[in-house]
Write a structure and sequence with these properties.
This protein is of the alpha+beta class. Helices cover 21% and strands 42% of the residues. An 8-stranded antiparallel barrel has the order 9-12-13-14-15-18-19-20. Strands 1-2-5-6 form a 4-stranded antiparallel sheet, with helices on one face. Strands 7-3-4-8 form a 4-stranded mixed sheet, with helices on one face. A hairpin with a 2-residue loop joins strand 10 and strand 11 (204-205).
């Protein structure tokens, strides 16, 4: 009877896969393969093969094995639940010597005599949380709720408060520095800033189709506030009494590097056919450089200003204003026939003389004559001068009167007939 039990036991061992060349990898082979998949701090305590089956064939055998395994914790294991500064806060999840059991399915193929390639297909076992104590790096860890944890929390809070105090101090110092820079720039920019030359566009002098150049002037009230109002003046560089004034607001940049200027409305300078729009990004720095973008991307208008009133320009503006106040003239330009006059009437006009136009006739001028050039021919004003002129539109006594051409003061007039009406000019006051 004992012999029969022994034979039966042997048969059972053969059924479940007693180690042998034709029965797949051994428990040691499986253990070695499993070890490669385990976290640090774990080891295989035991492997017990339960069933082995060749799922290949005799020529190319592939052994599929189910085993029960036991995993041992060689170190205490901890799970991270937070951190304080650079130190992990953990709770203990396993002690050294604890074990876990589970079921393992592997597949093995022979690699030469007594050598096996083992692949793990599946491991049914409770999850292994956390990591071994040795795996928490140079900063280590503290156990949640421990005295070390409480000490670390207190140190971290102290460091946080110190860092916050330093941050606030640095913030206040930076704010004070910015405020000082803002006040310094604001005080530097107080007053009037006048152009030292004509405005440039991308480094070249800007001019309109009539070759008129423009310059800018900034007027700022006294004060040290970072935000306020002032005025921006656009004027004809060569005829500085021709100007337009644009109200503006300003704000000193937070870093105190420049003043940002914004017009309160779109402002068109009709005399030069130039418009500055509300919202244009205009800046003025402490070197007096006024800058704003042009319509072409990457290009800028610039005008170099210097602190102080341009006395010559102010005198010209004042004198021009006196002429307007005294005589209340109309502004004249273009041909004589376009002036708002009726036959045998006159009016006072203010104009700037030039030598670019056409003159027809002498003394009694044809209506096709350019008024600004006619005053030069008549000898009333020189080229570039400004004055108030009385212009009379006279009806001729005859239907047509011959008006000969002459050269006077560098201007040659054409000979022509003056029919029905002609124009006479007299100087009232020169600027």
């Amino acid at each position: 009877m004992k012999q029969a039990i022994g034979l039966l036991f042997c048969a059972c061992l053969t059924l479940v896969g007693c180690s042998g060349a034709n029965e797949g990898a051994s428990a040691d082979d499986i253990e070695k393969a499993l070890m490669l998949d385990l976290k640090a701090g774990l080891s295989v305590d035991d492997v017990e093969i339960q069933v082995t089956e060749n799922v290949g064939d005799k020529i190319d055998p592939k052994w599929r094995t189910r085993s029960t395994v036991s995993i041992r914790f060689d170190e205490d294991f901890f799970e991270r639940v937070g951190s304080v500064a650079d130190t992990a806060v953990v709770r203990k999840v396993a002690s050294a010597g604890d074990t876990l059991s589970g079921s393992l399915i592997t597949r093995s193929t022979p690699r030469g005599e007594d050598n096996w390639s083992v692949t793990i297909e599946r491991l049914d076992m409770a999850a292994i949380p956390g990591n071994a104590a040795s795996q928490f790096g140079v900063n280590g860890f503290v156990v949640e709720g421990s005295s070390e944890h409480e000490t670390l929390l207190a140190q971290a809070e102290q460091q946080r408060q110190q860092a916050e105090a330093e941050r606030l101090q640095a913030q206040q110092q930076a704010q004070a520095k910015r405020q000082a820079a803002i006040q310094q720039l604001r005080q530097q920019l107080n007053g009037t800033w006048s152009a030292t030359g004509p405005m440039l566009n991308n480094g070249a002098i800007w001019s309109n189709n009539s070759a008129q150049k423009m310059a800018l002037e900034v007027v700022l009230p006294a004060g040290d506030e970072a935000i306020g109002e002032g005025s921006l003046v656009m004027y004809d560089y060569d005829s500085p009494w021709i100007q337009t004034v644009a109200p503006m607001s300003f704000k000193i940049a937070d870093d105190g590097s420049a003043m940002n200027i914004n017009l309160t409305r779109d402002t068109r300078f009709d005399a030069l056919n130039f418009t500055l729009y509300r919202g244009t990004d205009i800046t003025l720095n402490d070197d007096g450089l006024l800058r704003f973008p042009s319509s072409r991307r990457g290009q800028f208008f610039t005008n170099t200003l210097q602190k102080g009133v341009n006395e010559a320009r102010q005198q010209a503006v004042q004198r021009y204003g006196e002429l307007l106040t005294t005589h209340k003239p109309l502004v004249a330009s273009g041909r004589l026939e376009r002036l708002p006059l009726q036959d045998n009437t006159y009016a006072l006009f203010i104009l700037q003389a030039n030598m670019r136009g056409t003159v027809v006739g002498t003394d009694l001028y044809n209506g096709n004559s350019d008024v600004a050039t006619t005053v030069v021919h008549q000898g009333l004003l020189n080229d570039g001068e400004v004055g108030v002129v009385k212009i009379t539109r006279r009806e001729t006594s005859q239907r047509c009167v011959n008006s000969g051409g002459t050269t006077r003061h560098g201007v040659t007039s054409r000979t022509d007939r003056v029919c029905y009406r002609g124009y006479q000019l007299e100087l009232v006051e020169k600027m």
